[in-house]
Amino acid sequence: MPRNFLSYFKDPSLPEGAKIVLFAGNPKMSEVFSGQGNKWYRRIGKIDWLRKAWQG
């Protein structure tokens, strides 16, 4: 997830070659799926790739 104000301009993306995605700290995975970023400046953008991977 892009840091700070970059989240307003860039959606989160799966890093190239990644096999594991961790949710350590904030935002929690449940917050990401509900569209919350846990900070006023953190926008959760388009996460279709994450939904697809989570649902299998």
What is the residue-mean pLDDT, rounded to a whole number? 80
Radius of gyration: 11 Å
What profile does the largest beta sheet have?
Answer: none
User: Beta fraction of the residues?
Assistant: under 5%
Number of domains: 1
Number of strands: 0
Uncertain spans, ≥5 residues at pLDDT below 50?
none
Could you say which overall geometry the principal axes of the C-alpha atoms support? globular
Separation of termini?
A: 21 Å
Instruction: Give the helices and strands as they follow along the chain.
Output: HH
Helix fraction by DSSP (H/I, runs of at least 4): 10-25%
Write up what this structure looks like.
By secondary structure, the protein is mainly alpha-helical. It has one domain. It has two helices and no strands. It has helices at 29-33, 48-55. It is globular. The two termini are 21 Å apart.
